[in-house]
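Students often ask why we bother encoding 3D structure as a string. The short answer is that it lets us treat folding as translation between two languages. Here is a chain of 274 residues written in the first language.
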Amino acid sequence: MKQRPDQRTLVASDLDRTLVYSPSALALTVPDEDAPRLLCVEVHEGRPLSFMTETAAGLLQKLAAVAEFVPATTRTRKQYRRINLPGPVPRYAICANGGHILVKGHTDHEWNAEMRRRLDEGCAPLDEVRAYMARTSDESWLRKERVAEDLFVYLVVERSLLPENWVKELAEWAEERGWTVSLQGRKIYAVPRPLTKSAALAEVVRRTGAEHVLAAGDSLLDADLLLAAHTGWRPGHGELADSGWTAPHIDALTLAGAAAGEEILRRMLSVSRR
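And here it is in the second language, the structure alphabet:
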């Protein structure tokens, strides 16, 4: 008989650099002949883009069979839909850092309208932040500027040329206007403070009636998600690890790269089976 997910346990996890990894983020430190077999889970413009180990893929399938698995990503809906995770399509997915909830792959427009109402009431408008970032950035290190879902903005930069204090100064300016700044790899995100994964998670928990929440993430934008969980994990890389961020119910792993993603899933599965 096919095992059904336990609706009492919900697992919410960030994707990029938590469960799935670009080639540069895999951090394969073992000799080539000992490297794990990899599964491509994302193709972009005809090229493989993101991976997880085959072991991690198997663990994720087992996890989805015993708990409600909810991807929670800063990716836009279009970017998220490029991800082809093993197993069935999750019943719920959180995209655009909480700005969208997908239900069986379809956009919940009522939730998006609610989030936009909160943004209108709680922070400076997107155009003001975007204009400031354009005014203070420099073409010598700026590679791309993108607006995601008309909710937040991010820059793709050349890290080696980025002025040392630019991100810090942007964060201080943004904080006064109700926005949060996060540096992840080559991307600098500016996100309205009310736009959080934890807000969307609370709505999914309400709908599912979940009693125990597990979470994982690696960046500053995942901190609220981790704090909203009963038990959480962060890998040994990323913004949270670099800053030494932790909390009493968070397990700070020392493993980095794809090995960390594998271990996070292993521990989530172990807790979910109790």
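Translate back mentally: The first strand starts at residue 6 and ends at 13. Keep this in mind for the problem set.
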